C-alpha cells in the first residue's frame, strides 16, 4: 500500500489560521452523544422547558410509525472520522485530531457481505475517506464486485498532500461517482463554514476533476455537489440553486458538474454546538418541525440505506451513527452478524434530530427527497 | 375538572408593546376576523412571489428594500432571512437597503424644486 500507508499527520492544511479542534479534543460536553440526545429530547437544561412534538408521534400521525425499511439498496460505509478539515457544521465532529479509522479487517467484512448481497451502491464517507490508508485498495475491491461506488470527497484533500494529487485519475479509472461539498459558489460563505482557503482549494480540485472528464456529459463520469446552509436556516429550492451554481461556477471558474444536492444541517455534533452557542437552537428546531413534510418523511434515506461505522457497527443512517444509536435488530448490530433479511424487517430508530430529514422538500445524502 | 379551576379568575395578559416578534408567525390568523379577503390576500401574495418574469430570488431582494422603505419590522425580519437564505450576500442586502434609503431621501429632496419654484414665484 506504498504511498498511502504513510502517516496522515503531515498534511498541508488549507486552513492556515484555522485552529478549530473537534468537540472531542476540546472535551466539550457534546462529545458525549447521550448529552446530545438529552438536549434534543428535553431541551438545553434537560427540564423540558422547551419541548417539541416527539418525532415518533409525528410519524404516527401519518401512519408511518414504526418506520420500516423499503429494502436496503445503499451500503454506506463511514471509513473514519479523520479529516483534513474542521468544518463548523460537521455532524461527524471530524478533524485531524480524530484517529478513529476503519481497519483492513473491517473492510474485509464489508467485502464479504457485499459479495453476497444484491446491494448495488456503496457510498464511502468519513471524515475524509481518502485519509484511510486502505482507501484505494477498498475501492478497487468493491469495483471487482461490480458495485457502483460513491466517494464523498471534500475536495481539499486532493491538494492536501502530493500523494493525493492523483486522486482525480484514480476516481476516473475506477469510474467512481464523486460527491463533494461546496456550500456556496462564493468564497466568503464557503470559508466561514469550512475554513480559510477551503473555497480556493475546492475550486482548484474541481478544475482537476473536470480536467480528467468529471462533470462532462459525454464521459459518464459523475460529479455532484452538495450545498448546505452556512447558518441557522433551511436550504432554498434545489433546482433554483443548481441553476445558479452552474451558471456562477461556469462564468467565474469554467467549472462543470452534474447535479446539486441541497442538504439540511442536522442539529447534532458541531452544528448543534453552533446552534446552542449562537442562540439559534430553539428557533431552528421550531423551523424544522413547522416544515415537517409527510411526503419527505415517506422518502427518508434510512428506509433504503444501511450505515456502517468505522468499527463495523450498523446504523440506520450516518446521523444515528454519530449519536451512537445502533440498529434495533436483535443479534444483528455488527458486520460480523450481518443478516440482510432480518435488517430489512427492523424498526428504524428515530428521534428528534430526524426532523432535519423531513423538513421542506426533505433531505438525504442525495439531496431533496420530494419533487 | 378540578373544582378549584372553575373558580380561578381568568388572567388576561395584555401586551404593552406595539410590536411583538411572535406576531409574525400569527400573520395568517387575520383570517379569523375576515376569512374571505384574507384568503384572497394570501393567494395573491403567494402568486406574487413565485418564480416568473422575475425570479423568486430577485423578488425577495425587492421585498427587502420595500420592507425598509415602509419600515415594517415584521417584513424586515422575514425578508432578511429569506434573502440571505436565497443566497444574497451581506453587501448585496445592504446595497438594497441603500436603494430604498436613496429613494426615500431623493423623494424629500426632489420636492426642493417645488420649494424653489414657490420661492421664485413670490420673491422680488
Quick summary of this structure?
The complex is a heterodimer of chains A (371) and B (124). Helices cover 34% and strands 9% of the residues of chain A.
Fold and architecture overview:
The complex is a heterodimer of chains A (371) and B (124). Chain A is built from 15 helices and eight strands. Chain A has 371 residues and is of the alpha/beta class. Chain A has a domain at 3-10 and 69-272 and 300-339: Aldolase class I (TIM Barrel). In chain A, helix 4 links the parallel strand 2 (121-125) and strand 3. The longest helix of chain A has 16 residues, at 238-253. Chain B has a domain at 42-124: Up-down Bundle (AhpD-like). Chain B is 63% helix and 0% strand. Chain B has six helices and no strands. Chain B has helices spanning 3-7, 35-48, 56-69, 73-85, 90-110, 112-122. In chain B, helix 3 runs antiparallel to helix 4 (73-85) and helix 3 crosses helix 5. Chain B is extended. Chain B starts with a helix and ends with a helix. Residues 1-5 of chain B have low confidence and may be disordered. Chains A and B meet through helix 9 of A and helix 4 of B.
How does the SSE layout of this entry go?
The complex is a heterodimer of chains A (371) and B (124).
Chain A: H1 33-42, H2 55-61, E1 74-78, H3 104-115, E2 121-125, H4 135-144, E3 148-152, H5 157-160, H6 167-173, E4 177-181, H7 187-194, H8 198-211, E5 223-227, H9 238-253, E6 260-262, H10 269-277, H11 281-290, H12 294-298, E7 305-308, E8 314-315, H13 318-322, H14 340-343, H15 355-358
Parallel strand pairs in A: 1-2, 1-7, 2-3, 3-4, 4-5, 5-6
Antiparallel strand pairs in A: 7-8
Chain B: H1 3-7, H2 35-48, H3 56-69, H4 73-85, H5 90-110, H6 112-122
Helix pairs in contact in B: 3-4, 3-5
Quote the beta fraction of chain A.
Answer: 5-15%
What fraction of the residues of chain B are assigned to beta strands by DSSP?
Answer: under 5%
Class based on secondary structure composition and strand pairing of chain A: alpha/beta
User: What count of helical segments of chain B does DSSP give?
Assistant: 6
Amino-to-carboxy terminus distance of chain A: 44 Å
Average residue-wise pLDDT of chain A: 94
Number of helices in the DSSP assignment of chain A:
15
Level-1 CATH class name of the domain at 42-124 in chain B: Mainly Alpha
Shape of chain A: globular
What is the succession of H and E elements of chain A?
Answer: HHEHEHEHHEHHEHEHHHEEHHH
Low-confidence region ranges of chain A: 1-18
**Fourth-tier CATH superfamily name of the domain at 3-10 and 69-272 and 300-339 in chain A:** Aldolase class I
| Total beta-strand segments of chain B | 0
Helix content of chain A: 25-40%
User: Can you identify the CATH superfamily of the domain at 42-124 in chain B?
Assistant: AhpD-like
The largest β sheet of chain B comes out as:
none
Amino acid at each position: 500500500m506504498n504511498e498511502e500507508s504513510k502517516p496522515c499527520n503531515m498534511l498541508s492544511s488549507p486552513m492556515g489560521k484555522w485552529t478549530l479542534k473537534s468537540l472531542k479534543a476540546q472535551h466539550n460536553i457534546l462529545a458525549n452523544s447521550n448529552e446530545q440526545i438529552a438536549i434534543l429530547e428535553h431541551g438545553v437544561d434537560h427540564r423540558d422547558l422547551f419541548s417539541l412534538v416527539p418525532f415518533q408521534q409525528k410519524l404516527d400521525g401519518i401512519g408511518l410509525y414504526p418506520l420500516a425499511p423499503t429494502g436496503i439498496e445503499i451500503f454506506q460505509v463511514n471509513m473514519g472520522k479523520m479529516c483534513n478539515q474542521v468544518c463548523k457544521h460537521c455532524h461527524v465532529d471530524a478533524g485531524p485530531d480524530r484517529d478513529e479509522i476503519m481497519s483492513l479487517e473491517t473492510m474485509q467484512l464489508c467485502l464479504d457481505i457485499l459479495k453476497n448481497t444484491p446491494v448495488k451502491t456503496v457510498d464511502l464517507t468519513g471524515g475524509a475517506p481518502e485519509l484511510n490508508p486502505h482507501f484505494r485498495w477498498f475501492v478497487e475491491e468493491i469495483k471487482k464486485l461490480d458495485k457502483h461506488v460513491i466517494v464523498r470527497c471534500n475536495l481539499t484533500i486532493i491538494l492536501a498532500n502530493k500523494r493525493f494529487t492523483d486522486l482525480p485519475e484514480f476516481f476516473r479509472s475506477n469510474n467512481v461517482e464523486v460527491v463533494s461539498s461546496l456550500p456556496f459558489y462564493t468564497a466568503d460563505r464557503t470559508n466561514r463554514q469550512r475554513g480559510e482557503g477551503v473555497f480556493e482549494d475546492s475550486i482548484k480540485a474541481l478544475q482537476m476533476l473536470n480536467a480528467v472528464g468529471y462533470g462532462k456529459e459525454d464521459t459518464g463520469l459523475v460529479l455532484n455537489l452538495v450545498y448546505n446552509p452556512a447558518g441557522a436556516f433551511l436550504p432554498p429550492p434545489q433546482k433554483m440553486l443548481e441553476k445558479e451554481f452552474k451558471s456562477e461556477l461556469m462564468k467565474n471558474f469554467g467549472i462543470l458538474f452534474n447535479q446539486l444536492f441541497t442538504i439540511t444541517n442536522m442539529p447534532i455534533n458541531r452544528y448543534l454546538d453552533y446552534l446552542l452557542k449562537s442562540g439559534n437552537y430553539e428557533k431552528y428546531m421550531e423551523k424544522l418541525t413547522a416544515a415537517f413534510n409527510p411526503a419527505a418523511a415517506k422518502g427518508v434515506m434510512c428506509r433504503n440505506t444501511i450505515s456502517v461505522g468505522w468499527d463495523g457497527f450498523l446504523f440506520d443512517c450516518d446521523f444515528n451513527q454519530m449519536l451512537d444509536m445502533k440498529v434495533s435488530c436483535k443479534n444483528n448490530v455488527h458486520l460480523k452478524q450481518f443478516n440482510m433479511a432480518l435488517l430489512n424487517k427492523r424498526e428504524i430508530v428515530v428521534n428528534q434530530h430526524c426532523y432535519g430529514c423531513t423538513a421542506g422538500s426533505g433531505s438525504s445524502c442525495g439531496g431533496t427527497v420530494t419533487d | 375538572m378540578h373544582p378549584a379551576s372553575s373558580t380561578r379568575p381568568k388572567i388576561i395578559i395584555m401586551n404593552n408593546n406595539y410590536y411583538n416578534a411572535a406576531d409574525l408567525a400569527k400573520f395568517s390568523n387575520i383570517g379569523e376576523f375576515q376569512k374571505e379577503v384574507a384568503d384572497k390576500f394570501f393567494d395573491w401574495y403567494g402568486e406574487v412571489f413565485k418564480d416568473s418574469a422575475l425570479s423568486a430570488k430577485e423578488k425577495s431582494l425587492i421585498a427587502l428594500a420595500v420592507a425598509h422603505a415602509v419600515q415594517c419590522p415584521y417584513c424586515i425580519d422575514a425578508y432578511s432571512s429569506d434573502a440571505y437564505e436565497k443566497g444574497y450576500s451581506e453587501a448585496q442586502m445592504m446595497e438594497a437597503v441603500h436603494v430604498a434609503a436613496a429613494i426615500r431621501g431623493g423623494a424629500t429632496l426632489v420636492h426642493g424644486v417645488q420649494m424653489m419654484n414657490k420661492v421664485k414665484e413670490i420673491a422680488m
